[in-house]
Design goal:
Elements: H1 2-26, H2 35-53, H3 57-67, H4 73-80, H5 84-102, H6 104-117
């Protein structure tokens, strides 16, 4: 069991590093004008809010519990009185919706930001 937890931890760390690398490659190089990127940030926030508002209440709740509160599937399931399978199903639907709505590059950038700040 300890070995599996260790493997899971290192897989998660590797995934987070890959997301950070993707995020870092999208950052401006030193000396570049970032004014347009600040404006773009506002647009990204608007698009994200719009994409999240299109979800059902349960999908939005599960997504926030998973991403913002870092809750595990079993904890989300217990808190909402649903099965872990239902949690997994809804998260897959949410992530597919975000990918479709925001486009793949923006989606990867947002997941990288979420990994850093939440």
């Amino acid at each position: 069991m300890t070995r599996n937890l260790t493997y899971s931890y290192f897989r998660k760390v590797k995934h987070q590093r890959e997301l950070l690398d993707d995020y870092a490659s999208a950052l401006p190089e030193e000396g570049q004008d970032t004014t347009s990127q600040v404006v773009d940030y506002g647009e990204v926030r608007r698009l994200l809010h719009q994409a999240l508002s299109a979800l059902t209440d349960q999908q939005r709740t599960i997504f926030r519990m998973s991403r913002e509160e870092n809750m595990q599937y079993k904890d989300i399931a217990a808190a909402l009185g649903i099965t872990e399978y239902t949690v997994n199903y809804h998260l897959k639907k949410v992530l597919a919706h975000l990918r479709e709505t925001l486009g793949n590059n923006l989606y990867m950038l947002l997941l990288g930001v979420w990994a850093i700040f939440f």
